[in-house]
Automatic annotation (TrEMBL):
The lineage of its organism: Bacteria, Pseudomonadati, Pseudomonadota, Gammaproteobacteria, Pseudomonadales. It comes from the Bacteria. Pfam families: FAD_binding_6, Fer2, NAD_binding_1. The keyword Ribonucleoprotein does not apply. Residues 15-119 form the FAD-binding FR-type domain. This is Ferredoxin--NADP reductase.
Length: 362
């Protein structure tokens, strides 16, 4: 009897990505499009995601394989398929390429990653307001969180959504439908640069009235996020309840290879005799090859630790250094507070002492 190919799970490419087909394209605004991805049954578990997470895409351009992350605007509890929304950026190589994608095209996609997610395990979450700040295309992950929370809880939600002008408002019609469906729970405030100017500290203070003690999620342009975060901290809000999603474009592959060679050479003199890894409640003691990253050592030992891009920009391999010293070669993800708390990126970090203990999030 022949092999039933439809029951086999497609293997990832050499770069860890999977081929997914675009099954729908939605023109959101003049310069933003949403791409809906078809997930075959054999990959549905691999591409299961949490509200607020993102997908990384490997895009071939000018002889290079470039990687970019785009948050999912879809909700795993509301929408049947994942959807990413990409805004065309002047001079943006990948954003322009993605905006030319058509239905039926195949894309190379890494599994979901990211920690910009609402903690749904807290028993008292329903009593706490949820305050979302989205700037421009930064609306995508907070929109996923918004839709999921409306479906899963009774929490009050406030969305402060900043855009250049009214024509730039992504998901405008869908937002209107949600407001009509949940008038007592969802409050949306639009801030337009063309009317109010750029968001200021004073405006943030005013918009936050009545929302003290909430959970805050912020995504958008750098100055926008800095203004909101700075104001929240000045108001005395807990840093642990302020979540900021920052995306940067990674270097081209040749630059990454050069940085990898320098970091590996610098670590060759360090010898780690014991790397202790806590993963899924179990402890493993493994050895390290000189120059290898923490992630490379874990994979060589057969440990299935979380990872995605392996280039230091997605944050999927975040872990806490509980003992010993490590050297982080590249960091575009972790905040200063997270670094001080002991977080590192396993794909970019190498041991610098004889004994290192790591813990990956459960």
């Amino acid at each position: 009897m022949g092999t039933q190919l439809q029951n086999l799970t497609p293997a990832p490419s050499s770069t860890g990505s999977y081929s997914l087909q675009v099954c729908a394209v939605v023109d959101e605004t003049l310069d933003a499009r949403s791409l809906v991805l078809d997930i075959p049954p054999s990959l549905r578990e691999r591409f299961r995601y949490k509200p607020g997470q993102f997908l990384s895409f490997r895009v071939p351009l000018a002889g290079k394989l470039l990687t970019r992350c785009y948050s999912m605007a879809s909700s795993p509890v509301v929408d049947a398929l994942p959807k990413v929304t990409v805004k065309r950026v002047d001079g943006g190589r990948v954003s322009n390429w993605m905006n030319d994608v058509q239905v039926g095209d195949w894309l190379e996609v890494l599994p979901p990653a990211g920690h910009f997610c609402l903690d749904e395990e807290q028993p008292d979450e329903d009593a706490r307001p949820l305050v979302l700040f989205g700037g421009g295309s930064g609306i995508t992950p907070v929109f996923s969180i918004l839709k999921s929370t409306l479906h899963n809880s009774t929490r009050p939600i406030k969305l402060i959504y900043a855009n250049r002008d009214e024509a730039s408002v992504i998901f405008k019609d869908e937002l209107c439908r949600l407001i009509k469906a949940h008038p007592d729970r969802l409050h949306v405030v639009h801030v337009l640069d063309s009317v109010q100017g750029f968001l200021t500290d004073a405006q943030v203070r005013h918009l936050l009235r009545g929302s003290a003690g909430g959970d805050y999620f912020i995504c958008g342009p750098g100055p926008f996020m800095d203004t909101v975060e700075r104001t929240l901290l000045a108001l005395g809000e807990s840093a642990g309840r302020i979540h900021v999603e920052r995306f940067v474009s990674p270097p081209d592959p040749d630059q990454l290879l050069a940085e990898e060679a320098v970091a590996r050479a610098a670590a060759l003199d360090s010898h780690c005799e014991a790397l202790i890894v806590e993963l899924d409640g179990q402890q493993h003691e493994i050895t390290c090859r000189p120059g290898d990253t923490l992630l490379q050592s874990c994979k060589a030992a057969g440990l299935d630790v979380p990872s995605s891009c392996e280039e230091g920009f997605c944050g999927a391999c975040m872990c806490v250094v509980q003992e010993g010293q490590t050297q982080l070669a590249r960091n575009d993800v972790l905040s200063q507070r997270e670094l001080e708390e002991g977080w590192t990126l396993a794909c970019q970090s190498r041991p610098t002492g004889a004994r290192v203990r790591l813990k990956f999030p459960d």
